[in-house]
Amino acid sequence: PLKNTKVKLILKVMNSNFESREWQAFLKLVKKDQRIQLIEETLDRPDVLGLIECCDAYVSLHRGEGFGRTLAEAMLYGKSVVATHYSGNVDFMESGLTYPVDYRLKPIPAKAYPFIEESDKAVWAEPNIEDAAAKMKEAFDDHRKKDLRFAIKNFAEKQFSVDAIGQKMSERLKGIDLEALKDF
After folding, report:
1. pLDDT score of 134
2. Residue 109: its pLDDT value, please?
3. Which DSSP letter does residue 116 get?
4. Which residues are CB-contacts of 71 (< 8 A; sequence separation ≥ 6)?
5. Which of 59, 58, 61 is closest to 125 using CA atoms?
6. What's the pLDDT at 4?
7. How far apart are CA 21 and CA 90, in angstroms?
8. Which H or E element spans position 12?
9. Pairing mode, strands 99-101 and 80-84
């Protein structure tokens, strides 16, 4: 297979299961490709932000992300974001500025989390790897476009400004029935 030597993939991981066969097989694959760098240790906040700042694109193939703070931070740096189009980040993954990755919902396996039981019928998003690869290539091809980087940064600055967040909080508070909360 052709190898693009112009790319480097830095994988920052946490909470790995070092004992699992899958993890050990993954480590063997990583060691076969010098373009891949694996960071397993915990980084201080400035180091995480430095890593985001020096990348060309931020990729998050998550199963469930919550808000997606690091994705938002990457956008504030004007970085392309390739991410599973599921969970909290869909609220700010603007069409034309980000690269949303398709997924399929999959039941969470029993014992995957200590607080999830089979009766919960909980699901997570399984990212489509082929779509992710295509979106990563597209982001790589686009990452030098200054106007795109500017548009991403500009959008993020408006989306996450104090005024914008204050407005969202105000709207949400107006929608809460305070009388109903008295007995809560």
Report:
1. 96
2. 86
3. -
4. 58, 60, 65, 81, 83, 89, 92, 93
5. 61
6. 78
7. 33
8. strand 9-12
9. parallel
Q: Mark the ranges of the chain whose per-residue pLDDT is less than 50.
A: none
The strand ranges marked E within 33-171 are 36-39, 57-60, 80-84, 99-101, 103-107, 123-127
Tens-digit pLDDT profile for residues 128-169: 999 999 999 999 999 889 999 999 999 999 999 999 999 989
Per the CB < 8 A criterion, the answer to whether 124 and 64 are in contact is: yes
CA separation, residue 22 to residues 19, 97, 135 (Å): 9, 34, 25
DSSP character string of 52-86 = HHH-SEEEE--S--TT-HHHHHHHHTT-EEEEES-
Eight-state DSSP code of residue 152 = H
Distance of CA 162 to the CA centre of its chain: 22
Q: How far apart (Å, rounded) are the C-alpha atoms in residues 142 and 144? A: 6
